[in-house]
Design goal:
Blueprint (H helix, E strand, L loop, with lengths): L5 H14 L3 E6 L8 E7 L2 E10 L5 E6 L7 H14 L4 E6 L3 H11 L1
Parallel strand pairs: 2-5
Antiparallel strand pairs: 1-5, 2-3, 3-4
Length: about 110
């Protein structure tokens, strides 16, 4: 099974988002080869879930909702991301602003 680098996957996610008419940006760059990926979803500036790509016991990667509830204040989300980044400096944090960002991430994740 081919394993793609984190940098390749982040670039692919950004291209897919922009091709679908959304906005995507890297908020924190991690390790190019094996960094974890955290996606901050939003729709027209309204906060959505934080999704993280994790290795599952099945041997595949899955996307899981992590961190505070999307309805929580923005400061709580920022604090969570700061804590994750301090614990894992190889972590990529990517922001997606597009309608139904979790669906886009799931579709993209199925390709990788």
């Amino acid at each position: 099974m081919t394993r793609f680098t984190s940098r390749f996957l982040v670039d692919l996610l950004i291209r897919e988002t922009e091709a679908a008419g959304g906005f995507a940006a890297v908020l924190a760059a991690g390790d190019d080869h094996s960094g974890s990926i955290l996606v901050q979803c939003s729709d027209r500036g309204v906060a959505g879930p934080l999704l993280e790509r994790r290795f599952a016991m099945t041997g595949n990667y899955v996307w899981e909702a992590v961190g505070p509830d999307p309805a929580s204040d923005g400061e709580e989300r920022v604090n969570y991301q700061d804590r994750r980044r301090k614990a894992d400096p190889d972590l990529w944090i990517v922001e997606l602003d597009i309608a139904d960002a979790p669906r886009l991430v799931a579709e993209w994740g199925a390709l990788t």
